Amino acid sequence: MSAKKPPRPKNQTSLKMLGKQLGTARRAAGLTQTELGLRVGLDDQTIASIEQGRRALKPDTAARLDEVLDTKGVLTAGVANLPDVDQFPMWAELYMEHEREAIALSSYANQVLPGLLQTRAYAEAVLRERVPAYDEDEIEPKTTARIERQDILRRRNPPTVSFVVWEPVLHLAFGGSEVRTGQLRHLRAAAELPCVSLQLMPTSAVSHAGLDGPFVLLETPDHQHLAYVEGQRGSQWVSDADEVSRLARKYAMLRAQALSPLESYGLLGRLLGEQ
After folding, report:
1. Are the CB atoms for 75 and 21 separated by under 8 Å?
2. Which residues contact 261 (CB under 8 A, 6 or more apart)?
3. Continuous H helices in the chain
4. CA 43 to each of CA 34, 65, 66, 73, 155: distance values in angstroms, whole numbers, following the listed order
5. Quick one: DSSP state of residue 85?
6. Backbone angles phi, psi at 238, to 5 degrees
7. Nearest CA to 191 among 74, 247, 269, 100?
8. What is the pLDDT at residue 275?
9. Cα distance between residue 226 and residue 83, in whole Å
10. For each successive 10 residues of the chain (275 residues), what is the average pLDDT?
């Protein structure tokens, strides 16, 4: 007889606790999520995401909710006293929310191409490499969600986006040679977008400031500077100004060490056998 696994501890993060407070106040006021959303100018999905702790509650929204729910400034105070974002576990939904709203993104990749640059075939091939494997019925929606994120590059007011990619990533043949060729052509097309700067770090580089791994720098519409770091055991936001500054200086060095955008475009052509 196998021993039962102990129950997993509940994730009592500050965002979830604040969301619970909102849900309790809403129900006490006799309002549905849809009704509350109409009163504060949000849709019901946004209200649900805040209550579940998957979406951050912004100060102006908290103030409107306090007024509608007569919570006497409790939600506003809760937002003002949240601990640094670094202490929260990283949810993909939270990152994608910031990514959608960002006015500037800087991404360094040395393992796999950033999701914003992947073709559908490449994205599916990468997802199929996961260990333990995703269920087959998870692959398609995850691939679609990743590709839909790229809409920010072609909207009317796109963010300013910079990528530095280590050249060995371009030699990985996820999905086979046809997928790789299609991906390289897609990179050239992406590099021609007015909002995009693509630089490649060549294998011949004698200096490399990114040996510690990939990261993303992000600037929000209210000019908050954040960083996002991924690793084998999970991901995290970095909001501490000193830590973000260190990563920003590292990224500046990477851009100086990498090929220029024009040289990088030429390298893509050579990898495609066209030069």
Report:
1. yes
2. 191, 197, 198, 199
3. 14-28, 33-40, 44-51, 59-69, 74-80, 92-101, 120-127, 136-148, 177-191, 241-257, 261-271
4. 7, 13, 17, 22, 22
5. G
6. -125, 120
7. 269
8. 54
9. 15
10. 43 72 93 94 89 83 93 90 53 76 96 96 95 92 93 95 97 93 97 97 96 94 88 77 95 98 97 81
Kindly state the greatest CA–CA separation across the chain. Answer: 69
pLDDT at 93: 65
Token pair of 155 as six digits: 């909207």
CA distance 211 to 206: 12
Counting DSSP H helices and E strands in the chain, the numbers are: 11, 6
Supply the pTM of this predicted model: 0.70
Let me know: does 210 contact 250? Beta carbons within 8 Å.
yes
Distance (Å, whole) CA 104 – CA 82: 25
Name the phi and psi angles at 92, rounded to 5. Answer: -60, -35
Q: State the DSSP string of 137-176.
A: HHHHHHHHHHHHGGGGGSSSSPPEEEEEEEGGGGG--TT-
Q: Report the run of H or E that residue 185 belongs to, with start and end.
A: helix 177-191
Residues 64, 86: Cα–Cα separation, whole Å: 26
Residue 229 contacts residue 109 (beta carbons within 8 Å):
no
Token output for 100: 């959608």
User: Which structure tokens are listed for 41?
Assistant: 């100018």
Q: Which two tokens stand for residue 247?
A: 């990563």
Is residue 169 within 8 A of residue 118, CB to CB? The reply is: no
Buried b (16+ CB within 10 A) or exposed e, 94-122: bbbbbbeebeebbbbbbebbbbbbbbebb
Q: What is the 3-state secondary structure (H, E, C) of 88-109?
A: CCCCHHHHHHHHHHCCEEEEEE
Nearest to 161 by CA among 118, 214, 99, 113: 99
SS3 for 39? helix
Assess contact for 190 and 267: CB atoms under 8 A. no
The position carrying tokens 């500046």 is 252
